Amino acid sequence: MADEELDAIRRQRMAELQAKHGDSSNNQQGEEAKQKETEMRNSILAQVLDQSARARLSNLALVKPEKAKAVENYLIQMARFGQLGGKITESGLIEILEKVSQQTEKKTTVKFNRLKVMDSDEEDDF
């Protein structure tokens, strides 16, 4: 009985170790893929943007990372489809930022929900 239990515990522990080892290799592969994607994005942006435009985009990424990511995606998509004539200057990037801002602009509305005020004509049942 003790040998069977010991074997079961060993098999269970071995399965746990293998699962941990498999997960760590998957995490490592995921990190490598993210790093390659980041390097690819940076190289495309370096080819598409001039120095001042890259500086402005990196400043934007510090303040509003979501908006910077949207602009980067937009620029990469334009570069892939060959819609860019040359390097984008800072003024060109500002125009693109305005377009993206208009597309993602959140419109806030204020809605007043007025409570019904008791009329003086109504009788109170106290």
Q: How does this structure look, described?
A:
This protein is mainly alpha-helical and 126 residues long. The protein has a single domain, classed as PDCD5, DNA-binding domain (Helicase, Ruva Protein, domain 3), CATH 1.10.8.140. It has four helices and no strands. It has helices spanning 2-48, 51-63, 65-80, 90-103. Helix 1 (2-48) crosses helix 3, helix 2 (51-63) packs antiparallel against helix 3 (65-80) and helix 2 packs parallel to helix 4 (90-103). The protein is flat, with a radius of gyration of 29 Å. 6% of the residues are buried.
Summarize the structure.
The protein has 126 residues and is mostly helical.
Q: Report the CATH C-level class.
A: Mainly Alpha
Please mark out the parts with pLDDT under 50 across 5 or more consecutive residues, or reply none. Answer: none
Number of domains: 1
Structural class: mainly alpha
Q: For the report, how would you describe the main beta sheet? A: none
What name goes with the CATH superfamily?
A: PDCD5, DNA-binding domain
Tell me the radius of gyration. 29 Å
Q: Please, what is the average pLDDT? A: 82
Strand content: under 5%
Query: Judging by the overall fold, what is the CATH architecture?
Result: Orthogonal Bundle
